Amino acid sequence: MHAERRWAALILLALAGLALVPLAVRRDDTLNLIFLILLSVTLAQSWNIIAGYAGQVNLGHAAFFGLGALVTRTLWIGGTPVLVAMLAGAFVAMVFALAIGVAAFRLRGAYFAIGTLALGEILRITTGNIFSEISTLPAATIAAYRLTLRYYLGLGLAALAVVVGATLATSRLGLGITAIREDEDAAEASGVNALGLKLTALAAATVLAALAGGLFAYYHISYYPQHPFSPHWTFDALLITNIGGVGTLHGPVLGAVFYVLLKEYLANRWVDLHLLIFGVFFIVIVLLLPGGLVEAGERVRRLLRSRLRR
Amino acid sequence: MILSQQMVLGVMIGGLYGLAAVGLSLIFGVLKVLNVAHGELIMLGGYGAYWLFVLLGLDPFASLLLVLPLSLLLGLGLYWALFGFVVRADEETRIKNSLLIGFGLSLALHALAVRLWTADERGITTPYAGKVLIVGQLAIPLVRLASLAVAFVLIAALHLLLTRWRWGRAVRATAEDWQAALLAGIDVRRAYLLAFGLGAGLAGAAGTLVSVGYSISPSIGLEWTLKALIVVVLAGLGSVFGTFVGGLFLGVAEAASAAAFGGPYREVVGLVIIFAVLVARPRGLFGAR
């Protein structure tokens, strides 16, 4: 438990360091890259809360990201201040998630995964049918576009995600949530309100995902409204969390940094093969290092310690 | 009249949904792993037939005799290299790990297909592609009718394999209770291997049929995985013919909803059905047994 607090402090310190970057670096590509990492941290941490801590493999996470994006974009272009619009998006997504969660949490294991995947696709297709036109910012907004604003918002969200994750990991509430992951029946038998806690975890995860979606809507000049609902947002979160270390606080953060940088590197180096390499790489991690980078780090540390003792 | 025409077309695509789902259902039911790259195996089967057609001029229905065994071999390879490690864990971990491996696999296979065949949509146009059978006022495309027939034959063959063949019965015993099967002297690992191979072979066959009557592209994987999942949930596990009927039902339901709400919503109906069925029977149709 203490380790999680230490990690939270360390990550927040690193984020504070990142706050200084725009003062020194004027290059947009660097800021965009860091922004992408920050967005990935938020999204991965939110998936980690529901899938890593609570053990509910949610394959419909993109629905929450998408709902956040849709509501935020609509309100913001309509004239609402962006922060208010993002909060509204988070609220709508949370209400939706809770309504769906009551039904979906009756499912377990593979059936929860299938059901949530279906749900995400329902929302994606329906959104694509209703809002089929590309959404582009008005010319005046584009003229006033400031990247640093988005950057700091991304920084704030990533920090929020880490704080929420750390609070869950170190609290009595979080203990109940992880107990459900280990054995739901046993947890219920020892007095854990499984449905209530699963809904709490889902609400926290959804709010973070929807805020990230709202930030996406605030960041991108033009995109199809269907795009944020695409299942690849779910898969990104899933890949990042598992590469970093599922069910740990720092796993999704390390995973996001590693994932974005590696993907960028591979995409530059092997343009059309990078996803092939990436897929194979991911499979190798799942088979050989189920605990991800966090486990790799721990193994190295244990090895070093045993060497030093000798 | 237009409605009944659409229903007929729905039955014909439904046969392919059934075939796609039977393979997934076999793997899920026996190994208790969820192979989300099943749609990518279908996609590869389609491209296999496409290649045989373009490079060798082989008729797609004849190339089934090559594509099916090759897909089966690919399945054996995938089991040996990947999924064989997954089945060593307990059931819940199996599901999670197979999901993760399936995602990695679908990512890799998708990229591979784009590299080999570009992202364009492709289909096989045989000399007899335009032939239509007129029954009353209905026009039935011959190729799709033949695909439906082939799908049915394959499913009947699988049924025979699973009920008459020694190893087929071993596969079914493993699906029912692998521990009891193990105690009865069945080599459970070999039953797993066989089920995975058969499932992949059927996926390849389904892909071949898709490439004839419909079209393929590297990104059809997820769509077909979803169709297969819908049918599996709808039909439950354990009955080969039940799964086939489930596929037909999905095809008809899609056609009906396209007629009622317009084309773009045809994809939604199956997803809504799956969600409703799941919520009504929380343990899926597993609980039916």
Class by alpha and beta content of chain A = mainly alpha
Report on the biggest sheet of chain A. Answer: 2 strands, antiparallel
Number of strands of chain B: 2
Order of helices and strands of chain B: HHHHEEHHHHHHH
Beta strands of chain A, count:
2
Sheet with the most strands of chain B?
2 strands, antiparallel
Low-confidence stretches of chain A: none
- Quaternary structure type: heterodimer
What this model shows, in words?
The complex is a heterodimer of chains A (about 300) and B (about 290). With about 300 residues, chain A is an all-alpha fold. Chain A contains 15 helices and two strands. The longest helix of chain A has 26 residues, at about 30-55. Chain B contains eleven helices and two strands; from the N terminus they run ααααββααααααα. In chain B, strands 1-2 form a two-stranded antiparallel ribbon. In chain B, a hairpin with a 2-residue loop joins strand 1 and strand 2 (about 140). In chain B, helix 1 packs antiparallel against helix 8 (about 190-215), helix 2 crosses helix 8 and helix 9 crosses helix 10. The mean pLDDT of chain B is about 85. Chains A and B meet through helix 6, helix 12 and helix 14 of A and helix 4, helix 9 and helix 11 of B.
Keyword list:
A: 310 residues; mainly alpha; 15 helices; 79% helix; globular; B: mainly alpha; 76% helix
Task: Summarize, please.
The complex is a heterodimer of chains A (310) and B (289). Chain A is an all-alpha fold.
Set down the secondary structure blueprint.
The complex is a heterodimer of chains A (310) and B (289).
Chain A: H1 2-18, H2 21-24, H3 28-53, H4 61-77, H5 82-104, H6 110-130, E1 135-136, H7 139-143, H8 147-170, H9 172-182, H10 184-189, H11 194-219, E2 222-223, H12 231-244, H13 251-269, H14 274-288, H15 292-309
Antiparallel strand pairs in A: 1-2
Helix pairs in contact in A: 1-8, 3-8, 3-11, 3-12, 3-13, 4-5, 4-6, 4-11, 4-12, 5-11, 8-9, 8-11, 9-11, 12-13, 13-14
Chain B: H1 2-31, H2 38-56, H3 60-86, H4 91-117, E1 132-135, E2 138-141, H5 142-164, H6 166-176, H7 178-183, H8 188-213, H9 221-235, H10 240-261, H11 266-280
Antiparallel strand pairs in B: 1-2
